[in-house]
Write a structure and sequence with these properties.
This protein is an alpha/beta fold and 215 residues long. It contains seven helices and ten strands. An eight-stranded parallel beta barrel has the order 1-2-3-4-5-6-7-8, surrounded by five helices. A two-stranded antiparallel sheet has the order 9-10. The longest helix has 13 residues. It is globular.
């Protein structure tokens, strides 16, 4: 079994991005939602992307932004992935892909199997399933019932997010068998800043998930 890829989200500083890449991150998430406490400042985003874009996927995270804003940020920063974490519809997602040239991640908050079924019209590059914590758009530190994925009928690659930590990511991988896992709060030392030890422990736990069981 291959270990899933790792997306480290809520990056706000170059040093945290560099450490994530050194540990093997597939993608780093830069949040451009004004109300997020993990919002990445424009100048920091430019620095991070220009320093690392050839070594990692640079993902911009947006919540109910105008298409014009998403296109401008994608062009200015040089994004390779766009994550849509709001109430964006399938047509919006297609237009973002067309106008930015980026691959698109559509996120959904999961409370029941119905939320998984609601993702079927979204023919994007990746589906990201997050916890359904009320009033929050990611970064809640709350998990969800990963077992719901057993009833998922979709071939869009799956990214699992929501309350992941070094201590539980192995269980999430075993339950959902995702393409990738996504973590923000579970690797932080303080809001918006990563803890190097937690980052290392998270990557180690993901790698361990691929180890063959001892008979």
């Amino acid at each position: 079994m291959l270990a899933p890829r790792v997306k480290i989200c809520g990056i706000t500083k170059l040093a945290d991005a560099e450490r994530s890449v050194e540990l093997g991150a597939w993608a780093i998430g830069l949040i451009f939602h004004a109300r997020s406490p993990r919002r990445c400042r424009h100048d920091d985003a430019l620095l991070i992307a220009s320093s690392l874009r050839r070594r990692v996927e640079v993902c911009g995270v947006f919540v109910n932004a105008t298409i014009e804003r998403v296109v401008k940020v994608a062009e200015d920063v040089g994004l390779s992935l766009v994550q849509l974490h709001g109430d964006e519809g399938p047509a919006y997602c297609r237009e973002v892909a067309r106008r930015t040239g980026c691959r698109v991640i559509k996120a959904a908050r999961v409370r029941s199997a119905a939320d998984l079924r609601a993702m079927r019209p979204y023919r994007v590059d990746y589906h990201l399933l997050d916890s359904g914590a009320r009033g929050m758009r990611g970064g809640s530190g709350v998990t969800w019932d990963w077992g719901l994925v057993r009833d998922r009928r979709d071939n869009v690659p799956l990214i699992v997010s929501g309350g992941l930590t070094p201590g539980n990511v192995g269980d999430a991988i075993a339950a959902a068998a995702p393409f990738a896992v996504d973590v923000a709060s579970g690797t932080e030392g303080s809001l918006g800043r990563k803890d190097p030890a937690k980052l290392e422990a998270f990557f180690a736990a993901v790698a361990e998930s691929a180890a063959e069981p001892v008979s």
